[in-house]
Amino acid sequence: MKVCVIGTGYVGLVTGVCLAEIGNNVFCVDKDSNKIELLKTGKVPIYEEGLEELIKKNIKSGHLIFHSDTSFAIKESDIIFICVGTPPLPSGKPNLSAIDEVAKLIGQSINGYKIISNKSTVPIGTAKRIKKIIKENQNDNKNDYEFDIISNPEFLKEGEAVADAFFPERIVIGSESEKAIEIMKELYKPIINQDFDYAVNNAHKRDKVPVLITDSTSSELIKYASNAFLATKISFVNEIANICERVGANILDVTYGMGLDSRIGSRFIKAGIGWGGSCFPKDVRALSYTAEEYGSPANILNAVIQVNNHQRFKVVQKAVNMLGIIDDKVIGILGLAFKPNTNDTREAPSVAIINKFLELGAEVRVYDPVVKDYPENMDKGAIMTASPYEAVEGANLMVLVTEWDEFYNLDFKKIKNLMANFNIIDGRNIFDKKKLQELGFNYTGIGY
Ligand code: UGA
Question: What is the rounded distance in angstroms from the CA atom of residue 337 to the CA atom of residue 220?
Answer without folding.
Answer: 28
